[in-house]
């Protein structure tokens, strides 16, 4: 593989006015990019998971609105029409809707002032990703304090073992991710850490993306089958779980990649702290009951019936893992009830997963 990655890379960047994104469907075997020139390109990249992860979906959606404004030659009505399509690209990660709505609100004001909508949209999309950079650095610092406290209790030479699910690293939110931000910070501070990486069937974001990210940063990690975490917890081999989230309600219920809930249950049963890391753009303060109110994405059955990987001939290919006549159900996310969440690691600090604590820290976001 062409390994030209360096620490200053992001999951996307601007080039000649277009958005270049890392094609995450090809990682870890091939580091290739795609150039998004139109709002339809942005919608497709989100839909087919060329880009994924709540934060990056929001960023690409925001740049998609900029591309829509450019295609519309600055016409607000046409920009809104194209942006409405981007907004529907995936249902669960609220950052997508949040980013499109934020851009449209800014464009409406700008149109009233007769400003150049293309310029304004670009500036606002850049502002969102700049905010994410600062946010993820702060999430890293607050989350690292938890790791540091555990490190002090460990016998000399023993690492702090952290379990994570899916990919919530820099491929998911610029520029340090959410769940992986405290891990990167701990590594920077020279703490002895080791990460258990859930493979995260069916799309294997853990095996393909998290293992790759951690490997690039030389952070010790071990890939495990999704069902292994519970046993590791019973053996006392998990000190802390940190996962990301795609939508968190005002009462602290957390939607994240399918399988997160089962890990939270196992953590609860074994007294292992279970933290969720998120930038505030991932709160959906309009809703309270995650199970009843969060739309869970249903994806193609083929993602369960087939597995993608590197073939003997060096090409990326798919193999079927179930009988030809078998059908499958593929929910992309599940909801972890707030009672199973030890705390929420945010850019403003760590709060409890309940309405009082969340609204205490994020009063300005309550509608
Ligand atoms: O379907 P994906 O790969 O977009 O799902 C991503 C996750 O579930 C991440 O854990 C999540 O986005 C939280 S981190 C931004």
From TrEMBL:
Role summary: Catalyzes the interconversion of methylthioribose-1-phosphate (MTR-1-P) into methylthioribulose-1-phosphate (MTRu-1-P).
Name recorded for this polypeptide: Methylthioribose-1-phosphate isomerase
Pfam families, per the entry: IF-2B (PF01008)
NCBIfam families: eIF-2B_rel (TIGR00524), PRK05720.1 (NF004326), salvage_mtnA (TIGR00512)
Family listed: Belongs to the EIF-2B alpha/beta/delta subunits family. MtnA subfamily.
Transition state stabilizer (site feature) positions: 166
EC number: 5.3.1.23
Keyword terms: Amino-acid biosynthesis, Isomerase, Methionine biosynthesis
GO BP annotations, alphabetical order: L-methionine salvage from methylthioadenosine
Active site: 246
Pathway given in the UniProt record: Amino-acid biosynthesis; L-methionine biosynthesis via salvage pathway; L-methionine from S-methyl-5-thio-alpha-D-ribose 1-phosphate: step 1/6
Catalytic reactions of this protein: 5-(methylsulfanyl)-alpha-D-ribose 1-phosphate = 5-(methylsulfanyl)-D-ribulose 1-phosphate
InterPro entries for the chain: IF-2B-related, IF-M1Pi, IF_2B-like_C, Initiation_fac_2B_a/b/d, M1Pi_N, NagB/RpiA_transferase-like
SUPFAM superfamilies in the record: NagB/RpiA/CoA transferase-like (SSF100950)
Gene Ontology molecular function terms on file: S-methyl-5-thioribose-1-phosphate isomerase activity
């Amino acid at each position: 593989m062409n390994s030209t990655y360096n620490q200053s890379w992001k999951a996307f960047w601007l080039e000649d006015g277009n958005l270049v994104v890392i094609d995450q469907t090809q990682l870890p075997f091939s580091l290739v990019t795609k150039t998004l020139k139109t709002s339809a390109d942005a919608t497709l990249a989100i839909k087919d998971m060329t880009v994924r992860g709540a934060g990056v979906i929001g960023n690409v959606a925001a740049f998609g609105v900029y591309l829509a404004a450019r295609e519309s030659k600055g016409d607000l009505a046409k920009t809104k029409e194209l942006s409405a399509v981007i907004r529907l690209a995936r249902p669960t990660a609220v950052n997508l809707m949040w980013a499109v709505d934020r851009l449209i609100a800014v464009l409406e004001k700008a149109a009233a002032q007769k400003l150049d909508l293309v310029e304004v949209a670009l500036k606002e999309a850049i502002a969102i990703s700049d905010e994410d950079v600062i946010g993820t650095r702060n999430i890293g610092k607050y989350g690292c304090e938890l790791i540091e406290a555990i490190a002090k209790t460990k016998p000399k030479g023993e690492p702090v073992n952290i379990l994570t699910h899916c990919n919530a690293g820099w491929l998911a939110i610029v520029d340090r991710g959410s769940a992986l931000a405290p891990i990167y910070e701990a590594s920077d501070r020279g703490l002895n850490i080791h990460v258990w990486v859930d493979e995260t069937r069916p799309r294997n974001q853990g095996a393909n993306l998290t293992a790759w990210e951690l490997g690039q940063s030389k952070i010790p990690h071990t890939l495990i089958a999704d069902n292994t975490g519970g046993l590791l917890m019973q053996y006392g081999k998990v000190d802390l779980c940190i996962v990301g989230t795609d939508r968190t309600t005002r009462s602290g219920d957390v939607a994240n990649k399918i399988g997160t809930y089962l890990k939270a249950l196992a953590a609860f049963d074994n007294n292992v702290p279970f933290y969720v890391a998120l930038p505030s753009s991932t709160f959906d303060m309009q809703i309270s009951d995650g199970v009843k109110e969060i739309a869970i994405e249903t994806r193609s059955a083929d993602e369960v019936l087939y597995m993608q990987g590197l073939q003997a001939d060096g090409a990326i290919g798919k193999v079927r893992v179930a009988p030809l006549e078998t059908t499958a159900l593929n929910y992309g996310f599940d909801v972890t009830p707030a009672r199973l969440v030890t705390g929420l690691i945010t850019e403003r600090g760590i709060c409890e997963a309940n309405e009082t604590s969340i609204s205490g820290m994020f009063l300005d976001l309550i509608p």
